[in-house]
Specification:
Number of helices: 0
Strand order of the largest sheet: 3-9-8-5-6
Structural class: mainly beta
Order of helices and strands: EEEEEEEEE
Amino acid sequence: DRVPASSPRLENIAGDRVSENVIVNQLVQITADITNNQDVSQKFVYIIQIKDSYGVIRYLAWISGELEPHQSFNAARSWTPDTSGKFVAEMFVWESFTNADPLSESVSLNITAS
């Protein structure tokens, strides 16, 4: 993988890890570490989608940027569940939206809101 995503997790606004069991209306950061494993700079877009138990996308967000050779980045986007239920956060690292070439395998995280 050119720019793998790893260690998917939930964090609070201070950056402390929190449980995957969250409270409705609790703000959390959906976070993963991405690292450029190449000897050249790499543009990227980090995409997060959250699906409910029916497979419906309830949230979609992204960050774009460029990583220098062997640089790591803690990618995070805020999310606040507005209903209770079970959710899956899926995280992708692509080259860009216009060139949807995956730079790594996707990672996921199960979340329960109550």
